[in-house]
Design a protein that fits this description.
mainly alpha, three-stranded antiparallel sheet, 6 helices
């Protein structure tokens, strides 16, 4: 039997945490003097995490329009932090990779991210931290695996307040 769900909408809590983390990261990034905007810094980290991906695939993973990603990449390429090369399977497409110059910038970005994670997880034991990550990863997998009702035209039901994220 499925347990009763908490009454506080999960989307609000997760969204609020994400907003607070983003706000702290923006402030920390400005103080770290990387010369990058938050979007550029996140793009650089995405390229590190997903090397040799097409620009379109990076945009989709990042949750931005392809033209927005193109702008971020244009500025990162002009700064010498990424390089784009033709995709051997489709010369019209570009694959994105880090350059050696990106390493010290990423080191600063990672240091700021680590400090923020420490602040967010303050007062938690290692098992509690591991549990938080495991549960969030499970939620991520659940949402990835299940169909999105909003994209299903057969689902025209209006959820009541208890069904909202």
């Amino acid at each position: 039997m499925e347990p009763d769900l908490p009454t506080r909408p999960l989307g609000f809590l997760v969204g609020d945490i994400a907003r607070l983390l983003r706000r702290r990261f923006e402030k920390a990034l400005a103080e770290a003097d990387t010369g990058l905007t938050v979007g550029e810094a996140r793009t650089l980290a995405f390229v590190e995490h997903y090397p040799d991906q097409r620009q379109g695939a990076l945009a989709e993973r990042f949750g931005v329009e392809p033209m927005t990603m193109c702008g971020f990449l244009d500025r990162l390429e002009a700064a010498g932090l990424v390089a784009r090369r033709p995709d051997p399977s489709d010369r019209r497409a570009k694959l994105v990779a880090l350059t050696a110059a990106a390493e010290p910038v990423l080191d600063r970005i990672h240091a700021e991210g680590l400090a923020i994670r420490r602040a967010a997880l303050a007062g938690m034991s290692r098992p509690e931290m591991d549990a938080v990550y495991a549960l969030l990863e499970r939620m991520h997998a659940n949402l990835h695996a299940s169909p999105d009702p909003a994209s299903d035209p057969a689902s025209d039901q209006t959820p009541d307040q208890s069904d909202r994220a």
